[in-house]
Write a structure and sequence with these properties.
about 300 residues, alpha/beta, 11 helices, globular
């Protein structure tokens, strides 16, 4: 099989747009669709074909890549695409959909004869734009030659977690990884808020831990976004992070585990969104520590 494919990208938000752009730059024929068309239109300059409907986007596709807000959005979009889906088409499902969501999507794939790959990604705007995401993937060994060029175009590394996409092993690993990301983000916001409340220069704290086991590049990156007021455009938006946090809490609860930190992180993110920070970087959960936006 040629490694130049026709790839349909459904969902061109922060991540989907970057993935579509890198697919086009890799020489694949790319068709994109987004419910808000204006978010897809800039991709025409990269050689992507803008489709009016999901069905138009998936016509004659070798691979369909979904990167939508959540599981229900992905399922609704694929239902709209269903009349044009060919049996045997590979579906790389990269939406963070949660365990139940993946099961629903895999059932749709089975009913329509699609080859389903559970394929969430690790990374935010910057690695997505650079084609340096980490793809977590599960799915049939037979047929991987179709999705591998797609994963290679959008990511620097693919981690295969299993041979059955419907089992959701890639999504399970993604939820575990995101639980750490969200905990670290919440901790970064709280340490800045406490430093402000106690009139401590946060850079003094950073100097204190520099080079030791408590130091962390991610802490510094997220803290700089807050301290420098660079919360837009987001690397990963507050509203999307809140959705992921709830999926993590739900998955844990359904398996007999209580995650107090994840529950608190979800609440912080939801509070920040309610304060008007939903479209800012998830580091803006910092503002959830205050009743009103603090003065800089």
């Amino acid at each position: 099989m040629t490694d130049k494919l026709t790839v349909s990208v459904l969902g061109t938000g922060i991540m989907g747009a970057a993935m579509a752009r890198n697919l086009a730059r890799a020489g694949h024929t790319v068709r994109v669709w987004n419910r808000t068309r204006s978010k897809a239109e800039p991709l025409a300059a990269e050689g992507a074909h803008i489709a009016e409907t999901p069905a138009q986007a998936v016509q004659d596709a070798d691979v369909v890549l979904t990167m939508l807000y959540d599981g229900p959005a992905a399922l609704d979009t694929m239902r709209e695409a269903a009349p044009a889906l060919r049996p045997g088409t590979a579906w790389a499902q990269s939406t963070t959909a949660g365990i139940e969501g993946v099961a629903d999507l895999a059932a749709f794939a089975r009913d329509h004869g699609l080859v389903f790959y559970d394929a969430p990604v690790l990374g935010t705007r910057q690695p997505a734009e650079a084609g340096k995401l980490t793809v977590l993937a599960a799915g049939s060994v037979e047929g991987r030659d179709r999705v591998t060029p797609v994963f290679d175009a959008v990511g620097a590394r693919t981690v295969w977690t299993g041979e059955d996409g419907a089992a959701g092993s890639a999504t399970r690993l993604k939820l575990v990884a995101n639980s750490w990301v969200l905990a670290a983000t919440a901790a970064a916001g709280e340490v800045l808020a406490l430093a402000k409340a106690l009139d401590v220069d946060p850079h003094g704290f950073f100097d204190l831990i520099a080079g030791g086991p408590l130091d962390m590049g991610y802490l510094r990156v997220k803290s700089d976004l807050v301290l420098d007021g660079r919360l837009t455009p987001p690397q990963f938006a507050v509203s999307t992070a809140a959705k992921d946090a709830r999926l993590i809490v739900q998955a844990a609860a359904e398996n007999g585990v209580r995650l107090d930190v994840a529950e608190a992180a979800a609440a912080r993110l939801e509070r920040a969104a309610a304060q008007g920070h939903g479209d800012e970087d998830m580091a803006a959960a910092y503002f959830a520590s205050f009743d009103d936006k603090p003065h800089s």
